[in-house]
Amino acid sequence: MDVRSQISMLFHLDKCIGCHTCSIACKNIWTDRKGAEYMWWNNVETKPGTGYPTKWEDQNIYKGGWEKNGAKKISLKGSGKIKGLTNIFHNPNLPVIDDYYEPWTYKYLNLIESPKQDDQPTARPVSLITGEPIDIKSGPNWDDDLSGTPDYARKDPNLKNLSPAEQEAMFQLEKMAFFYLPRICNHCLNPACVASCPSGAIYKRGEDGVVLINQKVCRAWRMCVTACPYKKSYFNWSTGKSEKCILCYPRIEAGLAPACMHSCVGRIRYLGVLLYDADRIKDVAAADENSLIDSQLNIILDPFDEEVIKAAKANGVADSTIHAAQYSPVYKFVKTWGIGLPLHPEFRTLPMLFYVPPMLPVMASISDAKNKEQKEKLDPISKIWDDDWLYDTSTEELWGTIEQARFPLQYMANLFSAGDAEKIKQVMKKLMAVRIHRRSETVGDIDSDKTQTTLSEAGITSEMANDIFHLTALAKFDERFVIPPAHRELAMDMLENTGDVKGSSGFGFKEKPQRGI
To answer: Binning pLDDT at 50, 70 and 90, where does residue 146 land?
Structure first.
């Protein structure tokens, strides 16, 4: 058992208000410079929608992540030793600037220095790349709040396997259905970007699992851009280097939360340490698709287990890091309560950013209502319709069923559980049980027997429901961010712990990565 520590994150999507404060905080600190104008290491997308860059989830286009090609074998989809050599001078799977957006500014001096004339002066938009005037066609949040629904949201790759009625229900103006999906680098346990780099410039820090790019070693092959299925590795056109989210590691080493997390208005973000068994990474990444979630969660170890603690100490993990893992809010959400899931586990990178799926307002069943007489009898206040479908937005009780959730379970499953709707249903049951339990305690208008039945069906206790509520709604800063003290003096010892080599990648390789070109 090769026990390692990993700084991990969790985002609670029920709390995200889409204010983009996190994105601006990151932009002002890290990417507010030449060549990085189009980069958003942290971005917030509206779902349904195609995101940033456009259709980043469609690996038929971008060839990111890993694919299974044997019983226990995986390979990179769009890069690697053979594929990388054939595409090293021309990579057809790279997103182009139009897939992101061409950054621009405005000629504000036109408003000040324009001579007297009959026409109103304007500040023309100009490209920050070429300096030439451009027609703005897209931006980093072009489809924010479903503003680009006809062109963007209906092209969301996650709409596959949804019936026409379910899709139509999501796009009716009267009951607009969307939620926000904040994204940063996942700092994966099996990062495709690390495996794809011909120069060996990308590495995973042994002491905390943060994935970084050595700017002195990077040779701008851009294989990492292709390999990352989340498209969180970017090319700086000014410096000729690749860049990505560094999880604000200078702040973490000082005991501070990353900028995006510290500035989060909705307090949706949590950060903590997870302990995992690096020896099992290969087997977990190559698991069958129907067992990917369970395999990834099983690789996360119990920080209170004596054998785990012993193995962690033998591998150079500091006592303070183990202590931080025992109080990690991420461990509670993901392992103890089982309500945190990874984003697109089918990419097989084993992401260390988890999400609590949103529980949007309830909508009752959808039925065919082309009968004119039936339409005329409807109450226009509580029920609305169009020419094809009848939408009954009322429920007999305050709480509808999981199946009546405004977002179909299959859509959430396509995002967070590799298409397994049952996994989403289990999480939703727990979230619903917490709501009913808290309503029963604070308002008292729900029968106690029904509350206990709901908790029992969800597989949680009233104490657990209260704990989930506390960490979700009442947690203080130190409870949301359990950051271990930095032990840079021990980092090299842990890297060298795998043998007589002078270094290691820090995530399971038994030999030092080869430094190429």
So the answer is: confident
Residues 6+ away with beta carbon under 8 Å from 498:
2, 504, 509, 510
Read off the pLDDT of residues 227-266 as tens digits, 9 standing for 90 and up: 999 999 999 999 999 999 999 999 999 999 999 999 999 9
DSSP secondary structure, 370-439, as one string: --HHHHHTS-TTTEEE-SSEEEE---SSSS--GGGBSS-HHHHHHHHSTT-HHHHHHHHHHHHHHHHHHH
Q: How far is CA 382 from the centre of its chain?
A: 36
Structure tokens at 68: 């299974």
Euclidean distance between CA atoms 204 and 432, whole angstroms: 38
Both tokens of residue 317? 């993990």
Angle (CA) 174 175 180, round 5°? 130
H or E, element range at 6: strand 3-12
| Nearest Cα to Cα of residue 195 among 513, 511, 517, 492 | 513
**Cα separation, 403 vs 421, whole angstroms:** 11
Per domain, the residue ranges of the chain are: 266-360+405-488, 366-398
Candidates 3.20.20.100, 3.30.559.10, 3.30.70.20, 1.20.1640.10; CATH matching 266-360+405-488: 3.30.70.20
E-state strands within 20-177: 43-47, 66-68, 74-76, 104-106, 125-127
Specify the DSSP class assigned to residue 14.
G
Q: Which helix (H) or strand (E) holds 182?
A: strand 179-183
Report residue 479 as tokens: 């409870």
Phi/psi at 244 (nearest 5 deg)? -160, 170
Predicted confidence (pLDDT) per residue in 471-513, tens digit: 999 999 999 999 998 866 655 555 555 444 333 343 333 344 4
For 390, phi then psi, to 5°, come to: -105, 130
| Phi, psi dihedral angles at 33 (to 5 degrees) | -160, 170
Tell me 245's DSSP state: -
pTM of the predicted model as reported, rounded to 2 decimal places: 0.87
Q: 1 pairs with which residues across the strands?
A: none
Nearest to 261 by CA among 512, 32, 482: 482
DSSP states of 136-169 as a string? ----TTTTGGGTTTTTTGGG-GGGTT--HHHHHH
Query: Do the beta carbons of residue 144 and residue 46 sit within 8 Å?
Result: yes
